[in-house]
Design goal:
Structural class: mainly alpha
Order of helices and strands: HHHH
Helix content: 55-70%
Number of strands: 0
Distance between the termini: 26 Å
Shape: globular
Radius of gyration: 17 Å
Number of domains: 1
Amino acid sequence: MKALELRIPPVAQFFIAAGAMWLTAKYLPAPQIALPGRNVLVLLFAGLGGLFAVPAVAAFRSFGTTVDPRFPARATRLVVSGVYRYSRNPMYLGLLCLLLAWAAYLSDLLAFAVIPLFVISMNRLQIRLEEAAMERQFGDEYRDYRSKVRRWI
């Protein structure tokens, strides 16, 4: 696992998870889930994904800091405003919401089972290392922020 740390961009992890969800729904027999209001759930989760991710990316760009999470040491500013008041990782939370929308669309039990694997992967291969880099770079300012704002939500 160590060799994969900060190597697979989060968007690639998202597409790997989404592809795995599609493959399981298509090729592995699993119970289909009858979701009342499925289309509403899909739109709700997709909309939430956009509400978290788009302003998060815009905030990074407006503060002039990197949006490439593979190189956390390149961060020039600690962004703690906007959606970052509610989640330390709103871009990743947005991706998670999109996966929830995709799972709802597929309505397949095994598709939903991939979602925890995405969270584990993001925590292990990306977030944990980013947090260590932010603590080294921003010290007490980051520790104070981390004590007030949850990792995901």
